[in-house]
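Notebook, p. 212. Picked up where the previous page left off. The plan for this session was modest: take the two constructs that came back from the sequencing core last week, fold each one, and keep the raw output in the notebook itself so nobody has to go hunting through shared drives later. Recording the first one now, exactly as returned: residue sequence, then the structure token string.
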Amino acid sequence: MSASRLLDLLTWRDAVDILVVAVLVYNLLLLIRGTRAVQMLLGIVFVGLLYYLARIIELPTLQKILESLLLVLPFAIIVLFQQEIRRALASFGRNPLWGLTKQQKVVASFADIVLAATTLSSRRIGALIVIERLQGLRTYVENGIPVDALLSYDLLINLFTPDTPLHDGAVIVQDDRIAAAACFLPLTPNPELSKELGTRHRAALGITEETDAVAVVVSEESGIISVCFDGEMIRDLDGKSLRNTLFKYLVTDLYPQAGAA
């Protein structure tokens, strides 16, 4: 069939259908890029190709085994990609305009967060501050102690002061307010994480693997300030680089035009 004949048969509905599928596949690839899901996906593709090869060259035993494996593949995909599926569904439910208002409120609190983190770092006081982006953190807020107060430098310092009731656990920031303190977060299951990093850092990575939040963590042992996002950690930040990193993840990456302004 010639190309011109093919174009004649292609309706606008077909074009829309192809475009939507292409966009979905592209966003799926973006979602799993740089994660362990890529290797899992390649393994699934390899099994599928091996099955069709077994059919072509007529290898009945291998074909039967792979058929049994492919029957349970949908359930395996749900289990293996549960984290990516949760993140995809959460991203579909975001409201960009509402998220823009949230980011503008958080930007106003950058100075307090940066000043508190650098002060705690100089005093070798551990801290974990989780900043909500577009995906809600209500589940983790509810397992902590409600605070619901305007974010400020003094309040952050008091919350993380050792031997105070709320110093252990994470502080969760929503908009320009501290929603809760002493919150328990999921720990990262990453086996390759350095053993030098303790529970606080593992929790910071864990929450950013489960959600799109940004986590600022101060090491109690070394005073090093780190930022975690999307399961990745940036370490050894000073006040200026911390502010720039927060601005990047909370504004520039989400709203390039707002970041440029």
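Okay, moving on. Second construct, recorded in the same format:
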Amino acid sequence: MRKFECACSLLLLACAVAGLYGMLHNQISYTVAPEYFTQFKFDQFGIPASLRNRLGASIVGWRAAWWMGLLIGMVLVPFGLLIPGWQQYLRTMLQTFFVVALTTLTVGLGALAYAYATFTPANIGPYSARITQPLAFARAGHMHNFSYIGGLIGIVVGVVFVLVQRWRIGRRAAPPMPLIQ
């Protein structure tokens, strides 16, 4: 029964981790391009005028990302049940969530670095006249798009992580093979 209780709590935790990740992620992208929020995301998420700042970017991040935690958790939390014992299961899943978040961050920052290295005013296409810094806007958008892809890649990395942990636990539990029979 403890594993089931852990699984339910872990699903909620996955949503919280993803929401907090979205808040942090948006602080990075707000630094890159405040206009990405003032001219796009704040309207998209109905953020009131009094919150159209970094706090509003955090709210957008939470709203845009918590559901990704549900998706990630719905895959990884049941998959993690391969881990024996509720304490080891809990420890492994907390580590897995960290690995997924780190993978997502790496993909998002990699996309941002790619955008800085390759995007130019000539190759980003036309933007609305109300966007005063289209290059920064394009870079932030690229980071956002690839961060969702990073979350999906994170699911695969998380599955592999759980399998490796299960294999390690199995090796520790197996009696040693005699050298000479």
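Notes on construct two before I forget. The two ends are 42 Å apart (CA to CA).
Flagging for discussion at group meeting.
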